[in-house]
Amino acid sequence: MSVSSPRVVIIGAGIVGANLADELAALGHTNTLVIEQGPLNQPGGSTSHAPGLVFSSNPSKSMTEFAQYTIEKLTSLVGADGRGSFLPVGGLEIATTEARLQDLHRRAGWNRSYGVQAEVIEAADCLKKFPMLNPEKVLGGLFTKNDGLALASKGTSLVIERAQAAGVEFRGGTVVTDIEQSGGKVTAVICGEDRFEADIVVSCAGFWGPNIGKMVGTPIPLLPLGHQFAWTTPAPSLAGINEQPAGATRPILRYQDGDLYYREWGDRIGIGSYAHRPMPVDLDTLARYAPEEITDERMPSSLAFTPEDFAAQWAATQELLPDLRNTQIQRGFNGIFSFTPDGGSLVGESREVDGFFVAEAVWVTHAPGIARAVAQLITSGQSETDLSDCDLNRFEDVQTTKEYVSETSQQNFVEIYDIRHPLEPRLKPRNVRTSPFFARQQELGAFFLEGTGWERPHWYQANAALLDQLPAEWAAPARDEWSNMFHSPIAAVEAWKTRTAVAMFDMTPLKRVEITGPGAGQMLQGLTTANMLRAPGMVSYTLLLNSAGSITSDITVARISEELYQAGINSNVDVAYLSREARKFNVANPGQWVSVRDITAGTSCIGLWGPLAPKVMSKVSEDDMSNDGLKYFRTKQISIAGIPVTAMRLSYVGEFGWELYATADVSARLWDVLFEAGQEHGIIAGGREAFNSMRLEKGFRSFSTDMTSEHEPEQAGLGFAVKAAKTADFVGKDALASRAAAATTRLRCLTIDDGVSMVLGKEPVYVNGVLSGYVTSAAYGYTVRQPIAYAWLPTSVQTGDSVQIEYFGLRIAATVVDDPLYDPQMDRLRGVDLAVTLG
Asked: What is the pTM of this model?
């Protein structure tokens, strides 16, 4: 790579930073400098003391793929001893309770969904694989044969050597003191008296990351926490088993019912515990050592062991592994690891500063995989593996505050091995973000779940009074214990009333931005798959793609006026992307400026939907809201009882109606006016469970759940959002044809044959007995009277084909059907078959 290529400076030479340099070199980019405050052979961060357990099991497809790449790469890194940097001893997660055993079946499903070999085995087989186990404690286990132990320090040293040989520069004993920026872009890294010019800076500083982020005004929401790890004295039953002093031949072991994990360490056992109290670490008081002072037992990331926090776990360990009653704790330490508000890694480019990238809160399990993804981001602008669930910018501002990060990260530490339902909300902090309708929703007995800090009604207890009126055909069948959690039969009432009368849904948490300025239309025209230069009043459902033609988001854009657009987007990741693109546009187009502003907090949105919605509207507004007065996918400014409202003729439940936007100060009155006007028409408030059911009946996709950047529009069933008449160039346009032709999978709708069995998402799907795909979204369809699931399946699968969905180890028969299941001709949305009157 010539010196004219972008200069990359990586901060941190642990397993993430070193692998990033190596991955960049593999892509031909060697104009890279890696800066490390400790010695290169022992940086002193988490890599230096990581126990190295690599378990692939993860509800995230992306994190599973990262773990698989870690295994592949470390296995290929062979040292002078002829051995690789990974020990494929397998992984064993044991159950000592029936609830855990059932959960292991669910975890096995995750593995199989994402291509990882996994099987739930009986207790006797667990004992064969790990003979030290107490046979009276173990009920069964999950065995993943290709998991094992990462030799992190060895692998890191080998990639440093390889990167150096390729021309990458490494500097140990060098402390970063500042990062220069100019015009919203990084320009240099300052290390005391030294200044290193940089076009791109990547923070791979581990738990030091927040301090690096402060240098450029970018929050890095992680909390360093102490985590106990100890070694026993030699165990009699391990004598002569392992050749290497720190070697292992038996599987790595998780005892999640006890918040403990284990690995062989020669003739000893290494024990890690999450069962102790959270131990947050203040970076300002953390000891710093000169490079020459750092040793295996003396490093910033290794704090003094606190035996009192380990006493109960030592007793539990001796009960599980009785042979350890013949041993003692030889030594231990409290190692520092990074935790985040949702437990995920932090990856990607800063929203605030161009050229500043982050790869933090990355554990050894995923480090080489994430390093490869960041290298791809830097060199080509996109990662082959989707980064939606670990994007640095996914958090809202309130979620990056010190207090929120501390409380939620400590909670994640405590719950790391808990059995958690996919809908289970956090217990605290709650009521962080509430819509202007919150008090009204409480009065109606809303059951709230939490997402991105928002309190979101899932159903309303007030509607329970209507259960006696619910027609029998609308009632859903009884559910199994797992799918019945965070479910209420009230959702059937709310779907029924939406389809047959009228309902109000709080859509305030829907993220929205204003894009303003004389260049707003031109910028959006180059970023989206629809025509953004249509007349004011037009609304478009459109996609954001990357240059490879992959979907990075789906958004709805309304042109309010010549220089004002309002976009309904998916998350803060979209805000970061649009803001970054606006900065680029403004530099390239002087005089055609664009501004992007998040208006979510200052506004509200009510979805008023159902066949009687026009009757409600006619009582509170003199504006023409008929089919002709406001057509489908159109917007206009109206007045509702004197309240200024932006009305959009949209519906994500598939019924006639509008999204009604107002400023926060008048929103509570808007709710009251509509709710009072709707009483004679049987109006109700509806929650997220009914909403999701109707969404799936209508075939509407949800980004990051149903499709990600792995997918292109046609295979996701969104080809209609790419307007063939759009001649203007847009990001990803040139790649679409080849991507679509190369697609081997397609998102398909499934209905459950028995009409009662439920699945929830992420379950493996079998075609002719062969594992062939996985479920994305699922719900009971109250209108169509059967459970629905969407799944990625081979393109060879045809409508009418039979498949099986694995749910807790059982196979459930399902059939592939065309979607949407409800109103495929769009008559309800367009008002074609409704006697819509306004009087």
From this structure: 0.95
